[in-house]
Amino acid sequence: MHEYDMGNTDMNANHTAIPQALISALQQARHVVVFTGAGVSAESGVPTFRDAQTGLWERFDAEELATTQAFLNDKELVWGWYEWRRMQVMRAQPNPAHLSIAALASLVPRLTVITQNVDDLHERAGSTQVLHLHGSLLNPRCFDCGQAWAAPSAIPDEPAGGRRLSPPICLHCGGAIRPGVVWFGEELPVRELRRAYASAKDCDLLFSIGTSSLVYPAAEIPNLAKQAGAKIIQINPDKTPLDAGATWSLRGPAGVVLPDLLIAAFPEVGIRR
Ligand code: BV8
Ligand code: ZN
Questions:
Q1: pTM (predicted TM-score)
Q2: What ligand 1 atom has the least distance to the C-alpha of 66?
Q3: Is the CB of 214 inside a 6 Å radius of any atom of ligand 1?
Q4: 248: Cβ–Cβ under 8 A, 6 or more apart, which residues?
Q5: Average pLDDT of the chain?
Q6: Topology (CATH level 3) of domain 1-46+94-140+188-273
Q7: Level-2 CATH architecture, domain 47-91+141-178
Q8: pLDDT given at position 52
Q9: With contact defined as beta carbons under 8 Å apart, do 221 and 114 qualify?
Q10: 67 pairs with which residues across the strands?
Q11: What residue's CA is closest to ligand 1, atom 46?
């Protein structure tokens, strides 16, 4: 594994930190998979999943709140947390990482975007057919009958540091509305996971961007691609368990590294940082 420190955010930095072999692999790729985690939304101001919690939820671990049991134990606490997170996403804008991934779709023959994120920033940047392995904050549904519930399009009032909120009641059966995300212990959506596995096995280049590579079965995706012969590019300021398996690890924020990479690989396109 080659490791490149992309920490230099000097706007005039040249692009020599990216190895030519990586640039050629991207230029010659037939099918590219981009696999993202919460780090790709960090530069949009959306806290990553394992960032220290703030406000009301300071004393809770995200993994404790992202469970069916937590919701059954305290619906108001969990619904309040998700509404606070939904509000953060609605206030956020796609960053250069999301925009670069969207631009990549027109620069390579085939691109598949697979995300663990529950925000819609890839879609708002222009990516299409994004495979959401862990659901979405924007698709709440009834806990009992599964009926979709249309979240209000207005940005909810920002509960100062978050607060407890009673979940809405399903008009269909009277059950409680729950977030449309996949909680720990819940099965991932079968269609999305099957398509993600197939893309990983078919691609010749996979980017793993902004993920701690800790949550399964999603964290299997890069390994499947590698076993099928793909080259793996990891973009993350920190070390992860994928370091050993990645062909290249670019150490830097995705919002800086990705535009740099596209400028180096496709200079004729005139991408600006
Ligand atoms: C299941 C939605 C079984 C909710 C989430 C082996 C196989 C299968 C399961 C397991 C297994 N071992 C253990 C399990 C159980 C569990 C699991 O994986 N636990 C882990 C903690 C060990 N898995 C499950 O429970 C899954 N379900 O297996 O069900 C089953 C099967 C059949 C039938 C019934 C049941 C469900 C997992 C899904 C959980 N839901 N999210 C919500 O959002 O509230 S997962 C959660 O973690 C988020 O979705 C997040 O996306 C995901 C992964 O986190 P990351 O995205 O990586 O974010 P993180 O904060 O960790 O890291 C951010 C990274 O970005 C860091 O590395 C940082 O350095 C980097 N970064 C920061 N800034 C930048 C940056 N990178 C680039 N640029 C920057 N600027
Ligand atoms: Zn219902």
A1: 0.94
A2: 44
A3: yes
A4: 1, 2, 3, 4, 19, 22, 231, 232, 233, 234
A5: 92
A6: Rossmann fold (3.40.50)
A7: 2-Layer Sandwich (3.30)
A8: 75
A9: yes
A10: 184
A11: 49
